[in-house]
Amino acid sequence: MVRFAMTKNIEISGVGVFGNEREEDIRSVKQLIADAERFQDNPDKYSQLHTEDTIIVNVAGRRIVGRDAFY
């Protein structure tokens, strides 16, 4: 299995975000990226990071529709 290194330094700008929403959103995105990186070798956990109606196009151009088809 090929592991992809995720970007460590993420810059996210917030337009129209109030209070602590931006910081919470940034933490959530960073956590999701960290989880995706950590679970690349664990299909059960990795697939749970996606919604049921996810659509993924892999590097070979293969389209995968739905979390169940993903794994």
UniProtKB/TrEMBL annotation:
This is Uncharacterized protein. It comes from the Archaea. It comes from Haladaptatus pallidirubidus.
